[in-house]
Amino acid sequence: MTRIGAIFHPHTHAPDEFRAAVLAAEAAGVAELWVWEDCFGQSAFASVGAALAWTERLRIGIGIAPMPLRNVALTAMEIATLERLFPGRLLPGVGHGVQSWMAQAGARVRSPLTLMREYVPALRALLAGERIEVQGDYVTLADVTLDHAPDTAPAVYAAAEGPRTLRLSGEVADGTVLDSRHTPAELAAAVSSIRAARSEAGRDGGHDMVAYVVTAFGADAEARAVAAVGERDEPVERALWGEPAEVADRARAFFDAGVDDIVLQPTSRVDLREFYAAAGEVARLVEAWSPVSGGASS
Q: Which domain holds residue 235?
């Protein structure tokens, strides 16, 4: 189950740098490259479609696209189209979005939790080829089914941080994306909450735990990693740093906390070719511990 991915950070690298980054990640042997969609930056689905077309093996994660900006039927169409074109290589995720940005776009909802509770099950049902009727506070679907549902529905991830959202993700999603800057102990508590809620909801099958972890390689790696996670208690436990073998060894604490997929997040604007080369080496070292999994089962 243990996997290593990497991030293309849209705040430090522009869209016109994306193609070179994607090709570098695939050449380096990185199994997964994750992106996200922030207002008002880089489109997730346009980026993912291009990345999948440019590559043969690389899986692309969306962690995440904001639900308030996207009608659930449109999101299902986007995911289904990409899944049919590039089967098994998309890891789609949705989340609340940054509330101030949602307000700027005129899309902020009163209850993000209610939106997730309605949105994620509807999205999963549409991707499974179901015909559904929903009349909720935020999601309304009248006799809707996809004309071209994927042969196998991909796992749907939800981003979660607060205690109520963590539990809700366990109830309704197939996997959870956990933000960076958490200690292994904090992640272990989050994983426990997600799993408990999933069990209480009667969900069976696996739930994929994805955690972004700030990572630095090369000269002054520890200083850069600690600076990136900020002035918090136990900063050295919230990041990874060093040569690839050191990063792989330190990653064990995050895997022991219940994380399935550690996604290495650069500390700042770095040379992505070098970062992905090092991440690929970490992935190979981790893969030697146990077989690599392709993601959550739904």
A: 3-287
